[in-house]
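INFO batch 0412 | record 1 of 1 | parsing
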Amino acid sequence: MTEDIQTRIRAIIAEQAMLEPEQVTDDATPEELGIDSLGLVESIFAIEEEFDITIPFNANEPEKSEFDISNMGTIIAAVQRLVAEKDG
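INFO prediction complete | emitting tokens
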């Protein structure tokens, strides 16, 4: 399941960035992938829809949110946590 979540998130981000999923590495930031703030919002909406979760509205403020969007690894970990909480 964890690998599946990671693969699906990479595909969503890659589509937004017009890249191949294997180019979306854990340490890549949205900016490094060429995703602007609007693109990031669109990606977050797509992730919410894909996994039937709600990402906190203040995710762009890491100090105020448990959902860290600073790089792909932290985004994947946060989505995995939300999915586990939903399924728990």
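INFO post-check: The mean pLDDT is 89.
INFO record closed
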